[in-house]
Amino acid sequence: MDCIFCKIIAGEIPSTKVYEDEQVLAFRDIQPAAPVHILVIPKTHLIGAAAITAENSALVAHIFEVIPKIAAAEGITDYRVVTNQGAEAGQTVHHLHFHILPGRTLKGMC
Ligand code: 5GP
Ligand code: ZN
Prior knowledge:
Elements: H1 4-10, E1 17-20, E2 24-28, E3 38-42, H2 57-74, E4 79-82, E5 98-102
Antiparallel strand pairs: 1-2, 2-3, 3-5, 4-5
Bound molecules: guanosine-5'-monophosphate (5GP) and zinc ion.
The site of guanosine-5'-monophosphate has 14 residues, from strand 2.
């Protein structure tokens, strides 16, 4: 499959990993919008938030259990968790991912 994040999971593209378990990988964004900018992804390929269902939502719950641990390890207490669904919303990689961004990095959004 021609998916950058699946290739990162497979180790075919290098990344700076900050967390990994059987279901989830987290790594630093290659074009950070802030000093801390981490992407958290499921190891299962889901195209985005629109692909979340009752059958796979436990995986998403797990991601949200992991996010506070990653933030704590990075020393950030105030942060945003962002997912872009669809190109018009800014999604450029069509593998579900959650951005962890400190403070109000995304100025002007809300
Ligand atoms: P999106 O715009 O889809 O919400 O976010 C995709 C993010 O993936 C962008 O912030 C972009 O910088 C990041 N990204 C794209 N390709 C790579 C890559 O090969 N390695 C890493 N670490 N991040 C990437
Ligand atoms: Zn993928």
